[in-house]
């Protein structure tokens, strides 16, 4: 029977017809064409409570993942394991399997903690190997330094760490202090390049008075390749009890202060070179080109 009027007086009879068509597997469009009911609201009312046939349902791309997640959960997999296996979010895994019972733990809390610690140790070891590989590659990229490159490196290092002349305090003298042995080695190599001989150097260790001063002086003497008796009397720093010090232990060597006597001319050359570096860098800035 085709319904062609605009009113639906015999609602129940029409519903029986529509439901029967639905149960035969017809889609909404097919029912609309068969009955002439064009109003979607009316058609939905007529079909209220009747599920659509399976063939009309749109396939869900995650249905397969969901079933796989439930299968893995039944096998005792954790959320993290399922997430890693399926490549989906942990929230999706939780939504799909939360009605399933939690799997029994396969190990004791102590064993689980040991596994976590082992995994963390492996992760950190892998990260450290990656860091070291990056550093080795970067070091190899530098290669040999020319005298000009060493000059620039030394000037830049001094301007960052050395004592500087101020308009309110004229001290045109080379004076450098640092706690990093490699920084000290580079600075000593720069002094050699600048023609500074060892007899012009005053060397002094600056260290907390609670530390092993003799051991520190011996350490720095090896770094700069001098005898220990070449050092001036160490500068001892008092410890403030309100300060929490982290530079303690056998690795604490204090700082080495290097003072170059008769170095006013060298200081001026260093400062001039620094501003030459700044000017050259600014000239190479695309924003400063005309």
Give the arrangement of secondary structure elements.
Blueprint: H1 11-23, H2 28-35, H3 40-46, H4 63-74, H5 79-86, H6 90-97, H7 109-142, H8 147-161, E1 175-178, H9 181-193, E2 201-208, H10 213-224, E3 235-237, E4 255-260, H11 264-283
Parallel strand pairs: 2-3
Antiparallel strand pairs: 1-4, 2-4
Could you explain the architecture of this structure?
This protein is α+β, with helices and mostly antiparallel strands and about 290 residues long. It has eleven helices and four strands, in the order ααααααααβαβαββα. Strand 2, helix 10 and strand 3 form a beta-alpha-beta unit. The radius of gyration is 40 Å and the shape is elongated.
Short account of what is shown:
This protein has eleven helices and four strands; from the N terminus they run ααααααααβαβαββα.
Number of E-state strands: 4
Assembly type: single chain
Number of helical runs?
A: 11
Mean pLDDT: 87
Rg value: 40 Å
Strand content: 5-15%
From the N-terminal CA to the C-terminal CA, the straight-line distance is: 86 Å
Could you say which structural class the secondary elements and strand pairing correspond to?
alpha+beta
Q: Largest beta sheet: what is the strand line-up? A: 1-4-2-3
Helix content: 40-55%
**Low-pLDDT residue spans:** 1-6
What characteristics describe this protein?
alpha+beta, 4-stranded mixed beta sheet, 4 strands, 290 residues, 52% helix
